[in-house]
UniProtKB/TrEMBL annotation:
InterPro entries: AP_endonuc_1, Endo/exonu/phosph_ase_sf, Endo/exonuclease/phosphatase, ExoIII-like. Its cofactor is Mg(2+); Mn(2+). The keyword Cytoplasm does not apply. The active site is at residues 106, 147, 248. This is Exodeoxyribonuclease III. It comes from Massilia psychrophila. The gene is xth.
């Protein structure tokens, strides 16, 4: 079973690249982030034409998450995180696909930090940690997949010294991510490539992709009951070099279930 996560950075403008990737790689599940489209503007028909059923949580101009499944319909479990009834941002969705619970997320960026956006990021992470603990406790086979907007270690950033004051790399962010991982989650990409410099995001500016000046901020975390099934993990790096690409590349895992 191949599960991927892909921040598309606007599904309307990136649709040709998304459809090409789905047809070429044929992941069984694809978690999408940053749809930047209201609920009614999601391109359901085009995605269905290439063999995928979808559930999505849209939002006009910003955010938005979706879960796509090849040849089957994701069974929605819920959307949004508990703990803040005033939070209207579309950043979290859960569904089951072929016996695996998929949690697709788009964690807040948090910049500028410090400030209200950073406070929101940290509060959102606390809500995620609570939900993740419940998922671990359930014993289910779970994947937390998405754009976490977290640089876990210096190995995950080109010239990490440039990121020390950024919300993605500040000590508070990494501390919260560390507590999440401390619940027992397995970082799939780092498990398979423990010492390799590997990125999932390259900025549009200063030829970042050409210089391989990237970040690893898209993660697939496996629950303890699912971690033994991990067989491979990687990044479809070439997709970042396609015409009119997202600034992220699809990141994937293969599970032997």
């Amino acid at each position: 079973m191949r599960i991927a996560t892909y921040n598309v950075n606007g599904i309307s403008s990136r649709l040709p690249a998304l459809l090409q990737w789905l047809q070429e790689k044929q992941p069984d599940v694809a978690c999408l982030q940053e749809l930047k489209a209201p609920q009614e503007k999601f391109p359901e028909a085009a995605i269905k034409d290439v063999g995928y059923e979808a559930i999505w949580h849209g939002q006009k101009s910003w955010n938005g998450v979706a879960i796509l499944a090849r040849g089957t319909t994701p069974v929605e479990v819920g959307r949004g995180l508990a703990g803040d009834p005033e939070d209207a941002q579309s950043r979290y969705i859960e569904a089951t696909v072929n016996g695996v619970l998929i949690a697709g997320l788009y964690l807040p960026n948090g910049n500028p930090a410090p400030g209200p956006k950073f406070d929101y990021k940290l509060a959102w992470m606390e809500r995620l940690i609570i939900r993740a603990a419940d998922l671990i406790e359930s014993g289910q086979k779970v994947v937390l997949a998405g754009d976490f907007n977290v640089i876990p270690t210096e190995l995950d950033a080109y010239k990490p010294e440039r990121w020390v004051n950024d919300a993605l790399f500040r000590p508070e962010t990494r501390e919260a991510f560390g507590r999440l991982m401390g619940q027992g989650w397995r970082d799939a990409l780092r498990t398979m490539h423990p010492d390799q410099t590997i990125y999932t995001f390259w900025d549009y500016f200063r030829n970042a992709y050409g210089r391989d000046a990237g970040l690893r901020i898209d993660h697939l975390l496996l629950s303890p009951s699912l971690a033994p099934a991990l067989k491979a993990a990687g990044v479809d790096r070439d997709v970042r070099g396609w015409d009119k690409p997202s600034d992220h590349a699809p990141t994937w895992i293969e599970l032997d279930l």
